[in-house]
Amino acid sequence: YDVGGKETTKGKAEKKGSSGAGRVFFYGMFAHFLLGDLQESLVALKRAAGAGHPRAQYSLACRLSAGNGVRRDSAAAVGWLRRAAVQGDADAQFNLACALIGGKGVKADAKIACKWFRKAADQGHVKAAYNLAVCYERGLGVPRMIPKALELYDLACTKGHSKAQYTLALYHDGRLGEDAIPAGGSFIKAVSLYTEAAHAGHTGAQYHLALRLFEGAKGVDPDPMTAISWLKRAAEGREGGLGAVPAAAYRLAKCYEDGDGVEKDQLRARHWYTASAEMGDVTAQVDMAKYYEETIGDSKRSRFWWKRAADQGHTEALFMMGLHYDAGQGGERDAKKAAESYIKAAGKGHIESQRRAGMCYENGLGVEKSVKKSLVWYQRAADQSDPHSQFKVAVALESGEHLPQDNKRALFLYGAAAEGGIVGACLAVARFHFVAEDEEKAREWLEKAAKQGSGEGYFGLAMIEEDKEVKSKHLEMAVETGHVGAMVVCGDMATEKGDHKGAVYWFEKAALAGSSDAHFNLGVCYENGIGVDIDEKKAMGHYLKAARMGDPDAMYNYARCLQDNGKDGTKEKDIGRQPGSAPKGDMRGAVRWYLRAAELDHIGACVNLGRCYALGHGVSKSMKPAIRWYTRAAVSGHVGAQFNVGLCYDILGDPTQAARW
Description:
Helices cover about 70% and strands about 0% of the residues. The protein has helices at about 20-35, 40-50, 55-65, 75-85, 90-100, 110-120, 125-140, 145-160, 160-170, 185-200, 205-215, 225-235, 245-260, 265-280, 280-295, 300-310, 315-325, 335-345, 350-365, 370-385, 385-400, 405-420, 425-435, 440-450, 455-465, 470-480, 485-495, 500-510, 515-530, 535-550, 550-565, 585-600, 605-615, 625-635, 640-650, 655-660. Helix 13 packs antiparallel against helix 14 and helix 28 (about 500-510) packs antiparallel against helix 29.
């Protein structure tokens, strides 16, 4: 809208008011503008306004609204505007309508505002005609009627209203309401209107005129030099930079960068890029961020411009700020702000931000951990074909832990993720085909994983390969990727061939990589002198490492070694030992490890733990826990445990249960 103000047109009110009131009014104007006596002027205006002079009423309203020589009073100003408007003063009618639109000093009422705009426009008030056109264009206070709006814009154009000229030019240019003007408008008419508004100082018109002169079409020849001139005026704005068009500065920068209509000048290009960015052009801000990041290598300045663009809601900038906060690049590291940035960009459909938002919720990075929320974002990214997110959703669908189980959908997403280069997805698809006993398709997906350098892929191929030479090659490739399982299998194969030293080599290599199986196997080798000299201490060391990794067999063997050898691995001597007497090893430690293995359903550990309770070795002697642990082994078919359960019941005096076992 055009804001309130005075025009030279006074309308019907010019002839109203007594001649005496008129003389008082003109004296008030004389006192104000020539004598500079605001108080004397105010006294005269009040007398003339009270006597019914409309221009005095209008002028008094302006003084009250602005607080010029009097206390600001918007409500009183509206009262005097209304009295002048009723008498037909066009300026008063226009300003009263503006007050009603904005709710300044009066309750907002667009419908009544349009009534006063129309009255002022009927008297030739050009700003009123323009504002009424805006109301019809937006359906504010009147029904939305684009043809009526265009008619009023055209009326304002004939009186040189630059905003109306610019708006009507946009319609003729097809940039507003493509169907509003018959036959799509007139390019020549648009250029003509842009030109009139541009000469009147309208910077938007100057910018669009420049664009049209660059392109040229439909009777308008291209004129890059003139276009550059208008671009400069639009980019510089009016005095003090008022009305400067950021997009014009950006286009001017492009011209200097590319030599379009001017000689190439990178310094001037950078000047206008900076000017455009500082004026708030988000595209320029993004370009500045990339310039400092990629060309200059100044992460601090880059972050500054990404932040400016992100604050305007630019999607890529929000994502980049997430990365900067994540890594602490160019400033503070802040997981919470990183998550906020990712989530905002994710909400705008940015795929990688959706995936990272999922990661934040999955791992509790900057937000409260929530698998449910993580899957919401993973699903949205998966719907946009993000392979990593497809894999995450597929895992959830297969497990049925956080999403309803759907193996069919899971397989589809695994396949899509695999096609997107996710190795784990290739292996998952292969697993599905193994379950379906389709070895040919499983092999196909394992080969795809192997081609991407997956040790698991090579290892899987080795496990299904019957040709020993090909199997060895696959294992060799898996070992090169550091696949621990492949190293263990190589050790097993060496053992089968009788190459025990070779087996130890592979087991030691796998053990260094953290394999519990390898540590267990090395324990067996050192305990029994297979490929190495017997070394009970080293054997126990490897058993302990495997046991701490959760291997129940290693727990059992370590407990057995503690029972037989003690903590230091020194073999107990049997000389002088009475039948049924307690071993001289570390029985308390042995019981602890038997218990851990037994809780993992290791049968041998259950039997030995039962014996410890039955005989009181390392624990207080008690038949009830002895029976409990013997029974766990007995129900699995262990004959010795079954006999011992019966023996315990016999000792407790329960022949029926004893006979049963």
